[in-house]
Each structure stands twice: as structure tokens, then as C-alpha cells.
Design a protein that fits this description.
Elements lengths: L22 E2 H17 L2 H16 L1 E2 L4 E6 L2 E7 L7 E5 L4 E2 L10 E5 L11 E8 L1 H7 L5 E7 L11 E6 L2 H4 L6 E8 L4 E3 L3 E6 L4 E6 L4 E7 L5 H31 L7 H20 L2 H5 L5 H32 L10 H24 L3 E8 L6 E7 L2 H32 L9 H15 L1 H4 L9 H13 L1 H12 L18
Parallel strand pairs: 1-2
Antiparallel strand pairs: 3-4, 4-8, 5-6, 5-7, 7-10, 8-9, 9-15, 10-14, 11-12, 11-15, 13-14, 16-17
Amino acid sequence: MINSCNESIMSGATTTQGPSGMYYLADAIDMMKAVNKQLTTENLSTVLRSVETLECILEKTVYNNTRTSIIAGSLVAHLFRAVSNFSGAIISASNEMVESDGVPINNSIVTVNLPKELLKPITNTTIVFCMITSPKLYEKLWVLDGRLVGLSVSNQKVSGLQDRVNISMLLQHHTVENKGDRQPSCQFFNFSSSTFHRDGCTTEWKKEEGIVVCSCDHLTYFAVLMMSPSISKKDQEILGYITVIGCSLSLFFLLVTVILYTSERCAGTDVSHKVHINLAVALILLNVHFLPSQQVATLSSTGPCIYIAVLLHYSLMATFTWTAIEGFHLYLLLVRVFNIYVRRYLLKLSLVGWGFPAVIVILIVIIDKNQYSRVTLHTSETNGTAVEMCYVSSDVVKLVTTVVLFGIIFLFNLCILAVTLSRLVFQRTPEEKGTTVNSICTILGITCLLGIPWGIIFFSFGQLTVPGLYLFCVLNSLQGFFLFLWFSMFRCKAKVSQPGSFTQSSQQ
């Protein structure tokens, strides 16, 4: 899990490295005792850092037999050597013992099914199972039964499994009672961010049996958390239909918009129309790659999913960028009417609109192309079937390139809207007053279309979650249709000198 175990961060634990950086069994026992002590005496962040180090120590522990178990208070660990003809394994554990011979032990509370795919190739590999039980984990992190289950393989980073690892956990009845509408959710612990995530894991809750089955495509530390469902299964289905139908309509009308633009005789005279068409093209790319994303994610081959994920991410950022360009262009048209000569204006806008997202995506691919993969959206409440799509798997990358990027653009467009409305309402001459209402409606239509509908997602929390998501899905899935209506109303104006035409004051 970490590159080196040379530094122990556990108080009261000392280790002696054997040959080739390995550790002796006695040292692993001392480590586990130290962590067990920390569960009651140290703060939770220190304990979790110790758990990360302990896992690495266990992977490098030397033991004589083909398998061995270590019990230290609230910690139960099991190490076993994989053979050359490894065909999978079953691990069962209670609070007092653990076995990997495929025979369930009495009073087992955790059962792990490891697939054959787990080990390729076999190179003196040790499989490590570690279970930690602590009330502190429940109190601080809402981990059911305060139980963390860790799985790892020495000298290997296991992820992207087609045949998933299944972890069945027997829950104590009092931990799931009186939780209202909360439901179990299988999640893994990210030691880098000290947070839980559910990417790559699905949840099947066998409520009558009191068992939660976690199916995950990677190895690390897993837990079951009680989470409030954001939306019901019925709402998920309705929102899915709205999104698919709306995006399909948008794609159709966006294509019609581009065709109308290219067929117009005045298509080459208005820079504003060219900016709008670039936005339309970005939306076309977004819809083309978004609509098949879930279907592609179900394919066994990872190549098509990576392709869809890369282009979906690129087109989404391109849409955001052209939204910002629309706001900037609107500012030049209606606020800075004079002295706005810009040489090769449209070319510079295109370099920003299409080039900036391309640079970001290329950097991500160069650093780690595995950031683009299958991402779990949600899990069926009845059969535990996961709904997946192809997109960015890293929470940090998603946060920076979508939420942060759009948040900045959203605030920018709101400022542009405020400045533009102020000019139209308070700074027009008496002769221009008659057109104020029409101009305001035009600006509100453009700016709300390109900015505010996306911003609704920031208000989709608490009691606003379901209504906010419905409004967000309806407005954004029909964004292409609204753009078509606007383009149909305002294309090919007879007077190119009126506000809205940038032709005479810039060079393309």
C-alpha cells in the first residue's frame, strides 16, 4: 500500500528488518499490538496512518508455513502464500480466528471470495487479510460495527478486476436499527485523503439475512457505512429517462442548428454566431459521448471506455470554456462597444475554447491514463447491480476540472450578467429605452442558458436535492434545444451594425 515500511509511525512498536527488507513474524505481532493499543489511546488519524503502515509490514512479513494467523485484541490478520495454480480462495473470519482453507468457521462475521484473476503472474506472493474492529471507527466515521476489512497482495497493486472480490459482512442488528431511510453503502478508505469513497464498489443488502455483500474491483481497506440515499430508485429511473430523451433531442436540434448556420449566406459575417456555433459543436461532442457512456462501460474491453471517458471529459470542459467565452464576448458587445478591435479575434477565442481543455486532458493522460475508467454512479436497491459510466475516476481530478472550473466560470458569467444589465437599465439614452426590455430578455436568455442551469447543481442539497436534480436535468438536457430556438430567432439580422454584431470592430 505504501512504498516503504522502514519508518514506523506507531508508538511503542519496534521492528527489525530481515533480508531483502522483509520483517519477522514477531515484529508483525508487535505492530498489531501497538495498533490495538492505539485504538483506545490515540486520535483516529494517527490510528489510520498506523493501519496503513501495518498493512505494508504484513505484506513483507516472513513466516514458515504456507499460512499463518495473528490475533491481537481487536485486530485479526491472516497471511497465506499463493501457489502457482491459484484458482481463487475463500477467507472466513470471526473476532477470534480466521481461516483461508475454504471451510467456513463457526460464528464467522466476514467472508471474502477472492477470484482467480487476482494473481497474474505468481511470484512468491503473499495475500494479506486484516480485520480491525473498534467503536471509535463507528463513532467518528459511521463505519457499521466499527469494522474495517483490509485486503492486499505483496508486490502488486490490484485494481480494475473484471471478476470482482466479494466481501460478505454479517451486521449486528442494533447497528442498522433506527437509522431512518439510511442504507448500507460499501466504500473503501483512501489513505491519501483520509476519506471514504465508493468508486469501484457495489452494494447488495440482504436485509432479511442481515448481510451486506460488497463487490469491488480493487484491493484496499473496505467498510460498510450507513448513508442517506440521495434519491429514490423511482426518481433515478425518471431522471434517467429525462436525461436520455432530453440529450437526444438536444443532439438533434444542435445538428440542425449547425446545418442552418452553414447554409446561411450571412454565416461568415457575424462573429457572434460563430461563437454560438462553437458552443453548439462542444455540446454536440458532449451529447455524442455522454449518451453511450453507460453502455460502453458494460463492455469487457477497457479500450472503448477509456476513449469515451477521455472525450467526454474533454467535451465537458470545452462546453464550460465556451460558456465563459460567451460571457466574455457578451461583455465586449454590450459593455465595451468602442475600442474593441482585436486582431484575429475568433482564432484566439478558438485556441482558448478548444486548446485549454485539450492541454488539461493530455496532461492527465501523460501523468496517469488510468484516471479514465469506469465510474460507479449508483447501485440498485434490490439486486445490487451497479450503474456505471466511463469518466474520470479520481475525485481530485473531477473536483478541480469540473466543480472548481465551472464554479469560477459560473461566478464570472454572473458578474458579466450584472454589469450588462446595469448598463442596459441605467446607462441607455432615452432613444434606446424602447429596446431595453427586448435586450434584457435576450441577455437573460443567453446567459441563463449558458450558465445558470449548470449552477443549479450547487443548490441540489438537503430538501432541494430531488427538485434541484429534476430542474438541473430538464434544463441542461434541453440546452441544445434552447440554443436552437435562440439561434432561429436571432440569426442573420439585417443590420450588422447593431449591438450583437461584432463584425465591424474586429478581425477574424
